[in-house]
From TrEMBL:
InterPro entries: Metallo-B-lactamas (IPR001279), RibonucZ/Hydroxyglut_hydro (IPR036866), Sec-metab_biosynth-thioest (IPR050662). Residues 23-236 form the Metallo-beta-lactamase domain. This is MBL fold metallo-hydrolase. It comes from the Bacteria.
Length: 324
């Protein structure tokens, strides 16, 4: 432990979002440098609240030396557009094409999701949903990362903070762990009241296959279990204190959800869309992309455990309970 880490202060700044998740938290770590972790959604209201909260801590935007983003979702990066252009912004390289709104990357998305819908057996009446798929990006930033960071990296002024890769909720997801105090700035990985949705992302620019978000999420939670975390400062909701218990609860909940799907498939084979309808009877129509992501997560989980079999000979694919 060095002097600087002893003098460290952390401030939570809470910013409204137009999304169902509600407010988002950002964090200021004050050492010999001022570091902002995450930068809320791009609305005038969020910008005003952010500046007001910042000044209540005796700071202004120009005092911020550097920004780290935990992942690329709009509610964590949007305000960067209002920051001076010379502030360094760090994050995982996979966040970059989302943050710059790289049209070359986005141009592949519609075809990707359409093929995914066909594979899953989604009714054609829902295909227009794909036209609006990039809509939340108007709340995101349009500036990229200055430098990429990843597993084990440390930044100036944050010598006791270890950056760790924790994909799952987003493939770009990072957390920051303060080894001296046991504080984890957890983005959306560990939330007190909800388990984060393992969102399906089209394959990254140089990859052929999508990442299996649910499996990555489980892996990230297992990784967090091995850390002496005392508290989590999350992206949304209350600060998490009893971390080992919550991590265990999340893993058990996931297994329970997967079992529900397994039991359903014991009665009949089904497409992913049918599983989605079964799991989310009342909400799947309104929240199609979120509920499909969750369903894909359960299928990936059960396939990985060898508990179900996929028939991919024709679209839509079907799933049957039972090992290979
Ligand atoms: Zn998120």
């Amino acid at each position: 432990m060095n002097d600087i880490s002893c003098k460290q202060e952390i401030k939570q700044i809470t910013i409204p979002t137009p999304f169902a998740v509600g407010d988002v938290h950002t964090y200021i770590i004050i050492t010999d440098k001022v570091t902002l972790v995450d930068a809320g959604v791009k609305t005038m209201e969020a910008w005003e609240v952010f500046q007001r909260e910042l000044s209540s801590h005796g700071l202004k935007v120009l005092d911020i030396d550097q920004v780290v983003v935990t992942h690329h979702h709009p509610d964590h990066v949007g305000l960067l557009d209002y920051f001076p252009a010379n502030i360094p912004v760090y994050g995982h390289k996979r966040a970059h094409p989302w943050m710059t709104q790289d049209q070359r990357y986005f141009s592949t998305h519609e075809a990707y999701y359409k093929e995914l819908f066909e594979r899953m057996g989604v009714e054609e009446r829902f295909y227009p949903v794909l036209d609006a798929i990039d809509k939340p990006l108007r709340f995101a930033c349009q500036r990229g990362l200055t430098s990429f960071v990843g597993e084990g990296d440390r930044l100036d002024g944050l010598a006791n903070w270890r950056i760790m890769e924790t994909p799952g909720h987003a493939s770009s997801h990072l957390v920051l762990f303060d080894e001296t105090s046991g504080t984890l700035i957890g983005g959306d990985l560990i939330l007190a009241d909800i388990s984060p949705n393992p969102l399906v992302e089209p394959p990254y620019v140089d990859e052929a296959e999508r990442k299996k978000a649910m499996l990555e999420y489980i892996h990230s939670i297992e990784k967090m279990k091995r850390l002496p975390i005392k508290r989590v400062l999350p992206g949304h909701g209350d600060i998490v204190k009893n971390v080992p218990v919550l991590l265990e609860t999340r893993l058990k909940q996931q297994d329970k959800r997967a079992n529900k799907v397994l039991n359903y498939l014991k009665n009949q084979p089904a497409t992913a869309y049918e599983i989605c309808q079964f799991l989310f009877k009342s909400v799947y129509e309104k929240q199609l992309l979120l509920t499909l992501s969750e369903t894909i997560g359960q299928i990936d989980y059960l396939l990985d455990k060898g508990l179900i079999v996929e028939d991919a000979t024709s679209k839509p694919y079907t799933y049957t309970a039972g090992g290979k």
